[in-house]
Each structure stands twice: as C-alpha cells, then as structure tokens.
Amino acid sequence: MIKVLVVDDDKLARKGIISLIHEGQYNMQVIGDVQNGRAALNFLEKERADLVFADIDMPEITGLELMQICKEKYPDMQFVVLTFYEEFQYVQQALRLGAIDYISKFRMESENCEELLNRIRVTSERRIKNSKKISVKPVLETEKEDLTEEQWKALVRGWKQMYWIYDEDNYRRLLENIKVQVIPLRKLEHLIISLIQTIETEIGKESTVIPIFEEITEAFTWLDEWRKELFNWACEQENLDKMPICILKVIDYIRNNINLSLHTEMVGGLVGMSRSYFSVNFKKLTGRTYHDFVQKERMKCAKGLLKGTDKEVGAIAVEVGYEDVNYFNRIFAEEEGCTPTSFRKKCYKISEHNSKQLSKL
Fold this sequence. Notes:
It contains 16 helices and five strands. By secondary structure, the protein is α/β, with parallel strands linked by helices.
C-alpha cells in the first residue's frame, strides 16, 4: 500500500481528498492529515509517508517550501500539490521541484477524479519501485559507499557549468561520472530537474515537460536528445540578450566554418561584442581561451579527415583553416604527439587489426 499524508490548512479540503482516496481502489492508505507544513515535518519525523498531498499556499511553511525541505531529508518522497491557482506557472514551479501531479480544488468536486488518482497511483508505484534500484550499474567486485555530500555537489557543479551542451568529451565524462557512482534513479531525476531550472535561468529556454523515468537508460537517452535540442535551439535564436546563447552561436559558427581564419575580432563582431569583452566571456563560459578552443576544434576535424578520407595532408590543412602545411604539421604534432602522416598510419594499422579480428569470429 502507498502510505499517504494529506497536508492542508483547509479542513474540508483534507476531508475531501481523504474521501476520494477511500472511495476508490487506488492502493493508498491515508496514515495522517495535518493542517500545515510544520505539522507535516513533525509527523514525518515519526512516521514516513510514500506520497504527500500538500496545498501550495499554507501559512508558516508553504507546500512548495515543504517540498524543498523534504527533497533534502527524504529524497524518495513524492508529492501531489493541491491548489486554487488555475495559472499554470504555479503548478509548473511545483513540477520543477519534483511533484508528480496536481489537483485543482476548483474542479475536485465537479469532475470525476478517478482517472487522475489512478494516474497518480501508477506513477507513485513506479517511483517506489525504482527508488529501490540504488545503483546505476551492477557493482561487480566490491560494495561502494553512497556519494558523500561533497561528491554530489561536485557532480552537480560539473553539470551546471554547461560545458556539456557543446563539448562532447565533457558530456561523456560527466555521464561516466554518473555511471560509476552509486546514485538512486530518483536522485538523477532531481539532478535533471535542477538542470532544467538552470537552463531556463541562464539561456531562457523553457521546458514544459518534466521527465519521469522507469530505467536509468531512459534518463541517458533523454539527456542525449535534450542536449541536441538545447544546442540547436540556442543557435537558432535571433535575440542575443543572454550570454550563453551568444557563445553557443559562435561555437556553431566555428564548427560550420572551420576552414576560415576565424579571427577573434571578426567572430566577436558577429554577436556584437568587442574583442576583449568577447574573449573574457568566451573563456568564462567554456573554460578555455578562444584561441585554444578553435585550435582544438581544427585538430578534431583534421583527425576525422585523416582517419576517414584519403585526402593529402596539405589539402586537409587547408580544409581545417591552415594555409601553411608546415605550420599545420607543427601544431598537430604539439597537440597529438605525432605528425599527421604518422597518425594516419596508426589509424590504418588499428583498422586492419580490427578487421582481422572480426574475420576470425
């Protein structure tokens, strides 16, 4: 049974919710009802609930504040918010905090709530089941301890820096950090909701869909798609009043025009910034100087061409923005520790070895 706590300063509203739950077959058991957020916290110290129905607007501690406190103390606890507000912005705020649904008090009596409560039941049962999956992958050799608070903060900090939106290597490293740690699925869900809030604040892209996952793999697939959506959306924006959008548009321009000289003044001018102002903000957002970023993008493109085509080194140098092939060779050697020709030979050897191994299977 799903253990339910009802929190509302309106006694009639509490009775109404309890009556609805008792009348239906929702696998729910009401273990208590209290009149405000402070009383709810006191109750939860003594008896744990799986699901809390809480009014958004209560004295002392509001429903939203109660959700925030419980998210820290009881991360697996679920909430359904009760509200008189018809405006979606209030409900949206609750959903961002992790609420699984909401019930409008205006419509509670006039509409059949059976479908709504069944939906809440299904979601709640699914989350309770998933909360028991404490590891994102099997621990094969030894037991791992849960993340410390500092490890969790470092993990969140890495994601909120937003390098992962444009930097594939950074994104894969952050994913790997999640995979090797013991993290409940619900905690990963909370991280994603927190990222949605950060993205809305930093670049102004609203996300109306708060994801709910049944498996860890679903969360990773969703992150992949969301990352592409974010980058593409930012690059399409014409209003450049947000700094991250400006820099993401520049990164998109660099990747699509890697053969050009890409001087700082010229690229900064594309988004209406002076050379110095652009350089400072580019490093602030990406963690690298503009020159270093462009050079690494040129090398990444060059390696792809050396590995995937038969083009001459001189032609590749021009294609990635170097008119002087000798200068290209020197920069490539500094970055990769070998010449472009040696790099290509290594790739061919690896490819031949893999082909031989496959032919033996």
